[in-house]
Design goal:
Blueprint (H helix, E strand, L loop, with lengths): L1 H12 L2 H26 L6 H35 L1 H6 L5 H34 L5 H34 L4 H17 L1 H9 L5 H8 L3 H13 L3 H27 L6
Helix pairs in contact: 1-5, 2-3, 2-5, 3-5, 3-6, 3-7, 3-10, 5-6, 6-7, 6-10, 6-11, 8-9, 9-11, 10-11
Length: 263
Amino acid sequence: MRPLIYSEFTRLWSQRWLWLVVLAAPFLAYLQGSYFLWISSLGSSISSVLFLFQGLREMLFLPCNIAVAALVAAVYTEPFRSGQLRLLFLRRFSRGQIFFSKLFVLQASILLLLLVLGISLAAVGMLRFPQEEAGRFWPLIGNAAVYYLLAYATLAGISCLFSFIAMYSRNVTIALGVCMTYILVSLLFDGLYLKVASLFAAWPYVRDLLAYVWIPYMQHTGLNEALSGNASVIWAIPTLLLLHAVICSAIAYRRFVAEDYMY
């Protein structure tokens, strides 16, 4: 499958819009730095390491998810609707191999974009914010590393959900529209499903499963709870991400390998 992965990776990263996303990361980091400097002027102290953590937290649930939605549409919906897959299916690779090569390239690309954003935030933090005290530097770096790993896990989970959406969308516009609707509903109507979750306050694990079933809200609030040591959240988050990855990927896979799905 190595030639297939290389071919898919080359096709994806040959698109100009993706390089514009890469180039936008330092710009977004700089804008985020300006925002936090304004907050600092109001009396809230932020160090370079805290900015590395807080900068990603503010961009994770909206800009990062939008970038993932665009990646998924480029990997699945666009080749499917443009007819590129018909040519690919004529080669010696099975449909299952093609699907999993696309999934691998998608996850690797998400990781690369997250690393670019993290490096951009680190550079802006070092240049524009005061350095952390020596005694707190390494513990905060460790917390930031854990947060970035959790952030990647949530982006990987939501990419599986978006893959399912992409495989059932008639075009890229519809795929992106449904993904955007999911993100906005998750963030704007959180009070509704939090009320449902509160009914299970006696069972913290069940309550947190219901509260963080929407991944953007999980990114916005749940990751901080997990880092603070909330045991039920620590168990609920991997459960939900694993369910998203297994169920959504399985449904997308069945759609992808169906004999008549292109007609």
